[in-house]
Amino acid sequence: MAATTDAPKSLEDLKGVDVDGVLRGKFMSKEKFLSAASSDGFGFCSVIFGWDIHDTVYSRELLISNKSNGYRDILASIDLSTYRRIPWENNVPFFLVSFLDPDTKEPLIVDPRGLMRITTERASEIGRQCFAGIEYEYFNFKETPQSLAQKKFTNLQPLTPGMHGYSLLRTQLNNDYFRDLFDESAKFGVAIEGHHTETGPGVYETALAYTSALRMADNGILFKYLAKSIGMQQGIIPSFMAKPWGNLPGCSGHIHVSLRDSSDRNIFAVSDSELSGGRADAAYDDTKFMSSEGESFLAGVLEGIADIMPLLVPTINGYKRLVGGEAFWAPNAITYGYDSRAASIRIISPPSVPPSATRLEVRVPGADMNPFFALSAIFLLGLRGIEKKLKLDTPPISHFSPEDRLSGKARMLLDCLESLLTKAGGVDSIAREKGMLGDVFVEHFGGTREHEVRLWNEAVTNWEVERYIELA
After folding, report:
1. How do residues 309-358 score in pLDDT, each as one tens digit?
2. 61: part of which helix (H) or strand (E)?
3. Is the pLDDT of residue 361 over 50?
4. Which CATH superfamily is 129-463 part of?
5. Can you tell me the distance from the alpha carbon of 259 to that of 383, in angstroms, rounded to the nearest whole number?
6. Considering the entire predicted model, what is its pTM?
7. Domain 11-108 is classified in which CATH homologous superfamily?
8. Rounded CA gap, 260 and 210, in Å?
9. N or C: which end of the chain has fewer CB within 10 A?
10. CA 113 remoteness from chain centre
């Protein structure tokens, strides 16, 4: 990228995150910024939690932001630890904000950063720190916002043709864009561990470097912002939609998680003395190189994953990615297994990695997830499993037959958002429990997803017109 000049001295860029994971913010004068930074924050219209990804007000009144309270201001608290400069935007200073209740000054649980803070605080209460990594797959198109609208989002031109996963040839095409994603991320404070082409026309995969969970969620949102910003400069649109095309693999947002103690030790790891043969009291061979606490964390995720699915897969489109099978490696059952990419939860432990790298990879989310909500839900389930000392009640299973599905050996995940909302919002849902998400979050977030379902149910698709308009 071209070198940038010194940043304007009069502007600060402040951004928060809405329910859909979209950055919302404003530029602020230096004087106003200093005033807000030295107090509880500044007023920010609560409508960002009352409208959808296209700024349409939600179908029903929600608890945090609604007509009855006039979409009153909430407090935007500037997180000074997130300071960085935007290298592709004249080096303007950049900060993330978290949103607080204006009366209590407590974090809003429906604010993505607020929920993540609440989650990490719950972990710290039992002496644990949450760590995570995210891998994004995303299509890239030779398009602009204007051309997308003119083409009515059809017949889009992929950045490169063909299925070229891990290709060293395709990286040479659009080389400036490919390298800028990596280099500008480093300047922007979003560390990348790996970056390569993935299977599909114009598809990349970017693995963000492992770090603390709040920082990882920040980095996940900021990487999307960076990719879209750099892409716009070069006539490229990166898409993090979960399933843009029916006949091609979808875009995953795989999440890696682990816990550490106050001495920075990975508590999922077995002791040195157990490395030769594994833990004697392990539930199954697949978990013998995980600690008993790691097993309980895994059991907690398995027990509750069906109740928090809308947080892992928040869009109508996301469920079309979860087709199962080896073709797309998008699992749609409650399964786990050692180093298995066909399972919903992949155990990564010795002997494939050192004990310090022991972790779980949750492979259900797509690239369209909100990383704050997805990470929070996973960690809250895992912490619940540890606190309840849950045991694994099903054996590992990666591949399953139709008979396994019919018999119940393979427990399937519900395959549409509407059905999952009924389960997740039910009175007995694990999501509603104290120490989990609670009623306020479930009601508010559930209302936003009901809005998505209503809009989908009212839509008339091209498929319907092509199928019925002449012959029905």
Report:
1. 999 999 999 999 998 655 557 888 999 999 999 899 999 999 999 999 99
2. none
3. yes
4. Glutamine synthetase/guanido kinase, catalytic domain (3.30.590.10)
5. 10
6. 0.95
7. Glutamine synthetase, N-terminal domain (3.10.20.70)
8. 13
9. C
10. 12
